[in-house]
Amino acid sequence: MWMLAVALLHSISHVFSEELHASLYFVNASLQEVVFASTTGTLVPCPAAGIPPVTLRWYLATGEEIYDVPGIRHVHPNGTLQIFPFPPSSFNNLIHDNTYYCTAENPSGKIRSQDVHIKAVLREPYTVRVEDQKAMRGNVAVFKCIIPSSVEAYITVVSWEKDTVSLVSGKLLRFSFPAGTGRDVSG
């Protein structure tokens, strides 16, 4: 009976010792969005660790495990996902504007990160312009700032100018242009 108790205690302590030495966890799981310039590329870590060491993998939100695309996308042995710099003509939604997640796995189990949206911003020239308006003398004309859709999420109109002089926002402004110029506007 005494031998049975010792054997039982030994096996229980062995199980607890394995549980204490096996772990799996995310170090920092707060990353939810990565926005990067197409000219620089980006590195996105999979911040998981564990004992014994973990195997890290990246997936698309659809559950499809991603694969290396030489010179475009690569998963490093340490689990870091790299998206390489690329010209605007090589933009691919599947790679450059998609939702990913990583997993960490070891004998303790498998854990999944939160979704991380990765979005490339194309670095290409753009022009912001004022939309032409027509109004009869004495009426109101509303001017709109036209921003290309590819960059409008990243642009904020902070002021309006007339002949390089800033106009005060929130005030009713009145402009008079010489007759015959086609710019007879009051506001």
Automatic annotation (TrEMBL):
The keyword Cell wall biogenesis/degradation does not apply. One of its GO terms (cellular component) is axon. GO terms for biological process: axon guidance; brain development. Gene3D superfamilies: Immunoglobulins (2.60.40.10). This is Down syndrome cell adhesion molecule homolog isoform X1. One of its GO terms (molecular function) is cell-cell adhesion mediator activity. Keywords: Disulfide bond, Signal. InterPro entries: Ig-like_dom_sf, Ig-like_fold. The keyword ATP-binding does not apply. Residues 1-17 form the signal peptide.
